Amino acid sequence: MIDIQNISKWYGQFQVLADCTTQVDKGDVMVICGPSGSGKSTLIKTVNGLEPVQRGEIVVDGTSVTAPGTSLPQLRARIGMVFQNFELFPHLSVRENLALGQVKVLKRARDEANERGLRYLDRVGLLAQQDKYPAQLSGGQQQRVAIARALSMDPVAMLFDEPTSALDPEMINEVLDVMVGLAQDGMTMMVVTHEMGFARRVANRVVFMDAGRIVEDCGKDEFFGAPRSERARDFLARIL
Ligand code: ADP
Ligand code: MG
C-alpha cells in the first residue's frame, strides 16, 4: 500500500532523512518511534507529499507521490492524516467540519456528506456533539472528531503524528481506543507515537528512527523482545 524507496531529504545543508526504505502492506499497523528530532514527523509527511524529498521514490496505492506530474490534492484526499494539534476548522460546527472535505474535494452532495460524516461521528462516540464548535469540545473529543473527519474521506491509509501527545492524560485512552478499533477493522496505518502500550496491543511492525535513519524495521515481538541496535535498546529502557 505504501512503498518508500531510498528517500533522502535535506533542509539546506542539514540532512533530515537519510536513505530511508520501508513498506507498509494493506492492513499493516506500523508504529514509528525514536528520539525527538530523529525525522519521524518528516518521514510521515513525505507519504502524502506534505514534505517533498530530494531523492528516492514513494508510491501509495499505485500512485507515485514523488513523480512530478502527480496531483497532490487528489492523493491527499485518499490518505487520512491526524496531527498532534487536532486542526479542526474553528469557525465550523462539528458536522460542517466532517462534511467540508467531502463536498469540496470529493464533490459529494451536501446531504450525502452529512450522512457519512455523522456515521463516522457515531463511530467515535460523538454523535451528540454534532452541532458544537471545536472550542466547546475537550482535546480528546476534538481529536476523535479529527479522526472521524479523516475517515469520512474513505482513505486507503491513515497517518497519525503523535495524536495523543498534546492531550491531558485522562483523554489519551479515548483516542487510543478509537485507533485500536480502526486497527482491528483492518485499516492500514502509520502511527508516530511514544505510546508503547498501543504499539504492543495493535502494531504488527515497529520502525525505530535515529538521526534521519531507519535503524530498526521489524515485527513488534522482535522489537520489544530483542531490538538489534543499541540505540533502540537505550530508547526502550528509557521510556518503558
Ligand atoms: P521528530 O518528529 O522525530 O521529532 P522532525 O521530523 O520533526 O523530527 O525533525 C527532524 C529534524 O529536522 C529536527 O532536527 C528538526 O529541527 C529539523 N527540521 C524539521 N523541520 C524543519 C524545517 N522546516 N527546516 C529546518 N529544519 C527542520
Ligand atoms: Mg515529530
Lay out the secondary structure.
Blueprint: E1 2-11, E2 14-24, E3 29-33, H1 40-47, E4 55-60, E5 63-64, H2 72-77, E6 79-82, H3 94-104, H4 110-123, H5 139-151, E7 157-161, H6 169-184, E8 189-192, H7 196-202, E9 205-210, E10 213-219, H8 220-225, H9 230-239
Helix pairs in contact: 3-4, 3-5, 4-5, 5-6
Bound molecules: adenosine-5'-diphosphate (ADP) and magnesium ion.
Adenosine-5'-diphosphate is lined by residues 11, 14, 16, 34, 36-42.
Provide an overview of this structure.
The chain is an alpha/beta fold. The protein has a domain of 68 residues. 38% of the residues lie in helices and 25% in strands. It contains 9 helices and 10 strands. A hairpin with a 2-residue loop joins strand 1 and strand 2. The protein is globular, with a radius of gyration of 18 Å.
Helix content: 25-40%
Strand order of the largest sheet: 6-7-8-3-9-10
Number of helices: 9
Spatial extent as radius of gyration:
18 Å
Q: What share of the residues does DSSP label as strand, in percent?
A: 25-35%
List low-pLDDT spans: none
Please state the average pLDDT score.
Answer: 95
Number of strands: 10
- Overall 3D shape: globular
Hetero ligands: adenosine-5'-diphosphate, magnesium ion
Order of helices and strands: EEEHEEHEHHHEHEHEEHH
Helical/strand content category: alpha/beta
**What is the distance, rounded to the nearest whole angstrom, between the alpha carbons of the first and last residues?**
31 Å
Largest sheet: 6 strands, mixed
